[in-house]
Amino acid sequence: AFVGGLGAAAWLTQAVLFLRCVRFFDQPAPWALTLPAAGLLYAAMTVDSAARFALRRQRWR
């Protein structure tokens, strides 16, 4: 429960800090909640790309 609470607090902190940027671009406030999900998606795509590159054993282009 404690770790889950820490995760929720981290998510909320990121969303609150991102809210200023969301408002600057005249977007609805709930969009701020998507930043952590976008970061997770980006990290997953980066790891997938690195794994595919490592398995192919050819030069990166």
Explained architecture:
The radius of gyration is 17 Å and the shape is flat. It is mainly alpha-helical. The protein has one domain. It contains 2 helices and no strands. Helix content is 74%, strand content 0%. The chain has helices at 2-24, 35-56.
How many domains comprise the coordinates?
A: 1
Total number of beta strands: 0
Envelope shape? flat
Helical content, roughly?
A: over 70%
What is the N-to-C order of secondary-structure elements (H for helix, E for strand)?
HH
Overall radius of gyration: 17 Å
User: What integer is the average pLDDT?
Assistant: 89
The rounded distance between the terminal residues' Cα atoms is 45 Å
Low-confidence stretches: none
The main β sheet shows up as: none
Beta-strand proportion? under 5%
Question: How many H/I helical runs?
Answer: 2
What structural class is derived from the secondary structure elements?
mainly alpha
